[in-house]
C-alpha cells in the first residue's frame, strides 16, 4: 500500500510496483501545479451516513451549493446532477437549508417583537443565580419583516402617477415673445 495524495483527499492505494520517494514527489507536484487531483470523487462516496451528516451541516451553516461542491471536490454542476440522481443527497441538502432558514426566521421574528430570556449572573456575594431579562423589540428587524411581508404597504419607494393636460400652448409661447 502507498499513501496517495491529491488536492481533494489522502488515501491508501494498492500498488503492485515500487515507487521511489522522488518519483512520488514529482507526480504529486506535477498534478498539484496543474490543479488535477489523483482521485475521482464518486456519488457513492457521499451517500453514506457520515457524508450525509457532513452535507447537512454545511447546508445548515448557510453554505451555497457552489461552496458545498467545492468542499466535496466536485463542480456545482456535478452536485446538481447528483441531487437529481440521489434522493439521499437531495434530502440532506434540502431539509438542512429549510431548517436553517426556519431558525433564522424565528430568531428574526423574536427580535422584532421582543422576548424574555434567562441568563446566569454572579452576585456581589459570588453566587451564580439565574435572572430573567427582557430584550426589547428591534426596530430594524420590524422594518425588515414588514417590508418583506407587506411590500405594497411598507415600502420606501412610492410611485405617484400624475396626469395633466396642457391647454393654450400657443398663447404661452406667444406671451414669452412679446416681452
Model description:
The chain has 179 residues and is an alpha+beta fold. The protein has helices at residues 21-34, 49-60, 65-72, 76-85, 87-113, 139-149, 169-178, and strands spanning 2-5, 10-13, 115-122, 128-135. The protein has 7 helices and 4 strands, in the order E-E-H-H-H-H-H-E-E-H-H. Strand 1 and strand 2 form a beta hairpin. Helix 2 runs parallel beside helix 5 (87-113) and helix 3 (65-72) crosses helix 4. The longest helix has 27 residues, at 87-113.
Features:
179 residues; alpha+beta; 4 strands; 51% helix; flat; disordered N terminus
Overall mean pLDDT: 77
Mind summarizing the main beta sheet? 2 strands, antiparallel
Which word captures the global form? flat
The low-confidence parts are: 1-38
Structure summary, number of beta strands:
4
The structural class is alpha+beta
What order do the SSEs take from the amino end to the carboxyl end, as H and E? EEHHHHHEEHH
